[in-house]
Design brief:
Layout (H helix, E strand, L loop, with lengths): L9 E9 L1 H6 L9 E7 L1 E2 L2 E2 L9 H7 L1 H5 L11 E8 L5 E3 L16 E8 L4 E6 L5 H10 L6 E5 L5 E4 L5 E3 L3 E8 L5 E4 L15 H7 L16 E6 L4 E7 L4 E4 L6 E7 L1 E4 L4 E3 L3 E4 L5 E5 L3 E7 L4 H4 L1
Antiparallel strand pairs: 1-2, 2-5, 3-4, 5-12, 6-13, 7-10, 7-12, 8-9, 8-11, 14-15, 15-22, 16-21, 17-20, 17-22, 18-19, 18-21
Protein name: Mannose-6-phosphate isomerase
GO molecular function, one term: mannose-6-phosphate isomerase activity
Cofactor: Zn(2+)
């Protein structure tokens, strides 16, 4: 197994997206499309990241050599457990929730715990997350009927470098003006409870999932706080599903990842890193460092990287 794996992004149209990934990340986007999401690493039936070498996908690699990618004992039919996305939020996303593991089977959905790392934010950018203290299901349902939900949700002003952990069950939305790197469980179950009266790309109101949302929202989740990481290393998330660390590197500083330890994901939020073999990763890149591959990196410029690991356990893979 080689030291790292690079993939071709899969772009997704979203009514709240735009063309920001062209300017912010230098991406060559599909013409005439409103792009809200770039799926950087995904192993799902409906979306399977192509290797940039053109010789397969993440899914075919996982099926052909699961032990080299994930470690000994990883079942060939178990998908890669993490999905990585860039979100270009030119408009506000719907108010939504992902089902907790305790209710997801009942709703024929998948739990989705995720983390948002803000790479760019306009001066008035914000995140919506959790409910205000005292808001319970009956009050919330009445607010849905009256179209007065916004006052019940916590609004968190967002700045570049902030981070928010969003466990399944947390009510949330992303406001306009955010460029976000999202690290999440491999799931695509989202229940919209409110969409601000907007229509979709087809000119029709988007589907809402009010009953599923009411069964999924944690009404005890109040007053969440953003992380404002500083210093050379910060742990942004440490959960059953994955651990996420933020590393600040000065020019010339090195990273080393030994082989046969665990698989990892390396995401470049700022700067440029060069591998021992001369290959480079720059701002916007997301790569997999497979279990069997050893890799070393040197920061060519001041850099900020995110390292996702501890996701190849039995618990997080189920």
């Amino acid at each position: 197994m080689i030291s790292f794996l690079r993939f071709t992004p899969i772009y997704q149209e979203r009514v709240w997206g735009g063309r920001g990934l062209e300017l912010s990340l230098g991406r060559d986007l599909p013409e005439g499309k409103v792009i809200g999401e770039s799926w950087e690493l995904v192993d799902r039936p409906e979306a399977d990241s192509p290797l940039d070498s053109g010789t397969g996908t993440l899914g075919t690699l996982r099926r052909s050599d699961p032990n080299a990618l994930m470690g000994p004992g990883w079942p060939a039919d178990r998908p890669f457990p993490i999905l990585v996305k860039w979100l270009d939020c030119q408009d506000r996303l719907s108010l939504q929730v992902h089902p907790p593991a305790s209710v997801a089977p009942e709703l024929n959905g998948e739990p989705k715990t995720e983390n948002w790392y803000i790479v760019e934010a306009t001066p008035d950018a914000a995140l919506l997350a959790g409910v205000k203290p005292g808001v319970q299901a009956d009050v919330f349902r009445k607010a849905i009927e009256d179209e007065e939900l916004e006052g019940l949700v916590c609004r968190l002003p967002a700045r570049k470098g902030d981070s928010l952990f969003v466990r399944s069950g947390r009510l949330h939305a992303i406001d306009a003006g955010n460029l976000i790197l999202e690290i999440q469980q491999n799931s695509d179950t989202t229940y919209r409870v409110y969409d601000w009266g907007r229509v979709g790309l087809d000119g029709k109101p988007r589907q809402l999932h009010i009953e599923e949302s009411m069964k999924s929202i944690d009404f005890e989740d109040t007053d969440p706080e953003l992380m404002h990481p500083e210093g050379p290393e910060s742990v942004l998330a440490d959960s059953e599903e994955f651990r996420l660390r933020r590393l600040e590197l000065k020019p010339g500083e090195e990273l080393f990842f030994p082989a046969n330890e665990e698989p990892r994901i390396l995401s470049v939020a700022e700067g440029k890193l060069v591998a021992g073999d001369g290959n480079a990763v720059t701002r916007g890149d997301n790569i997999i460092l497979p279990y069997s591959g050893e890799s070393s990196w040197k920061a060519e410029t001041a850099s900020v990287v995110l390292v996702t690991d501890r996701f190849n356990t039995v618990t997080s893979a189920q």
